What we know:
This protein is α+β, with helices and mostly antiparallel strands and 206 residues long. 18% of the residues lie in helices and 27% in strands. It starts with 5 loop residues before the first helix and ends in an 18-residue tail after the last helix.
Amino acid sequence: MLEANETLRERIAANLSSHERSESARAELRPAAVAMTVVADGTGAACFVITRRVAGLRRHSGQWALPGGRIDHGENAVQAALRELHEEVGLDCAESDVLGLLDDYPTRSGFCITPVVVWAGRDLSLQPNPEEVAEVHRPRIADLDAPGIPKLFDLGFSDRPVLSVHILEQDIFAPTAAVILQFREVAIHGRDTRVAHYDQPPFAWR
């Protein structure tokens, strides 16, 4: 079992510190941030927070997502990710809980997502905001090393493969899958893996 302990926190922070982050230079994209948040379950196993968005939202209705959203005027990516984490699932984390950033991910829907890795570390109560979040889950990080993760799909509309990860008994697609995969590769295993070249399925373009 991969435990949510100080050893793991230090390992993630060190791996992110040594990662040369890739930033998007596409000025036409709207800046957004997501929180890749490490928590524990009742056994002490290291997990991360993922949500399913409420049906009927204007953007990405019903899709699986990490807590996050648009960066408001006057905010940076870290501040936006922490704000959204609180607004969506009720977690209060400070900037001192941020372990680092992953690569920017440009989306088909016109955003540039900056993933912020946050350490909550304990078995905390998650309180989904019913206006935004239909479900909230904490999959185990160790399960990201299961056979068949990731999956690549050729859907015939792009010269780039579409990426997914199979968790919660289903395929979850990029952009969320791209952040999850890079977190596994860079933050957990210290591998220099890039994900911005992976495409998203058409339902994620809206």
